[in-house]
Specification:
Strand content: 5-15%
Number of helices: 14
Radius of gyration: 21 Å
Pfam families: HTH_31, MLTR_LBD
Protein name: HTH cro/C1-type domain-containing protein
Number of strands: 5
Distance between the termini: 23 Å
GO molecular function: DNA binding
CATH architecture of the largest domain: 2-Layer Sandwich
Helix content: 40-55%
CATH topology of the largest domain: Beta-Lactamase
Length: 292
Amino acid sequence: MDSENPLGRFLRARRELVRPEDVDIPPAGRRRVAGLRREEVALLAGVSTDYYIRLEQGRERHPSAQVAEALARALVLEEDAVAHLHRLARPAPGRRRRPAARRERVSPALLRMMDGWPRTPAVVLGRCLTVLAHNTLGGALFDGHTHSRDLVRLVFLDPDAREFYPDWERVAVNTVAGLRAAAGVDEEDPELIAVVGELSLKSEAFRRLWARHDIRQKTHEIKRFRHRLVGELTLEYEALTVNSAPGQQLIVYQAEPGSPSEQALSLLGSLVADAVEMPHDPMSTTTKDSSA
């Protein structure tokens, strides 16, 4: 993955997604470029065209906070993308040599807490949205899929993904945006490089969405599933940051009380209860490396 000019690549990708009518630019015949022209972004942001071109080309890499904010408005960026733009413009000083990759582990206290939610699916995700741990119902929710322990590969490589996710297009967009948000500005992360490289080769849909540079933190959302054992499920999830383990997220799913989805979730819990001897199987509390 080319990391020489992340700011320029981000600006260009986002510029190509903005339609002139999105920023009140009147149509002026046929346009030969996707999205806005460079001079239009410069005009909207209040900077010279030459300066903006230098930003995209990587000849200028550190715009001021005021310029970054003006560019964010010109490119109609959402909140998470604005924060990402500022991080690209002002990376942390004194970048140190990357330490050797370490296995991501989930704290025993968090595992015990998840065990105490027998009726609530819960999973812990790592930096690249790999499933590091789950409680019984969380594992049952994704069980039966080739890539059940890797949510990105599940969406784009699993042959049953479009059946499992009735709203697959929206899930795909949000998954890629969430992967970018989880990765932050560290595009040299070996795990991220491996994931993006594999999926870019194997999935045209992933390649197209990754090139958009959408970025959106996982927070909360209503998601639909079509489970092989219990049928349709409509669940709301909350994504919680694990402060004791930077990069990890606890995802908790809930069904609306009294709904058919709550009944289906209860049925799923009953179906797996007798088959599971312990809340976590050996793979669910280890890292991706040790379970590969």
